[in-house]
Amino acid sequence: MEEDWTSKAIITPIVKYEYVRIDIYNKMAEVNVIDHKHQNIVMKLFIDIDKNEIKKTGSLGNHPLDEVELIDSIIGNIKYFIKEGISIP
């Protein structure tokens, strides 16, 4: 099967999420976005689902990711965790 391959890629994570706190009752969360390579926090998010409010410190800087899409993805995860009653993912 390898003889049919046209290319090979090594995929390395760029960032990872650290869910610091998920408050199921108040539908709020605090999330750190961490640079995978350097292991430092590049962005902190404070999200209130009911108020549809996001407070953000930091940015993705030179990372080749769309910040809006990344935040939308994190919000989707948080909504799922709250719906399922998961406070420590």
Order of helices and strands: EEEEH
Question: In order across it, which strands form the biggest sheet?
Answer: 1-2-3-4
DSSP helical segment count: 1
Envelope shape = globular
Helix-and-strand structural type: alpha+beta
- What oligomeric state is this? single chain
List the helices and strands and how they pair.
Elements: E1 15-23, E2 28-35, E3 40-48, E4 53-58, H1 67-84
Antiparallel strand pairs: 1-2, 2-3, 3-4
Would you kindly provide a written description of the structure presented here, covering whatever features stand out?
This protein is α+β, with helices and mostly antiparallel strands and 89 residues long. It has one domain. Helix content is 20%, strand content 36%. The chain has one helix spanning 67-84, and strands at 15-23, 28-35, 40-48, 53-58. It has a four-stranded antiparallel beta sheet, covered by helices on one side. The mean pLDDT is 91.
Identify the notable features of this structure and list them briefly.
globular; alpha+beta; four-stranded antiparallel β-sheet; 89 residues
Short structural description:
The chain has 89 residues and is of the alpha+beta class. The chain has one helix at 67-84, and strands at 15-23, 28-35, 40-48, 53-58.
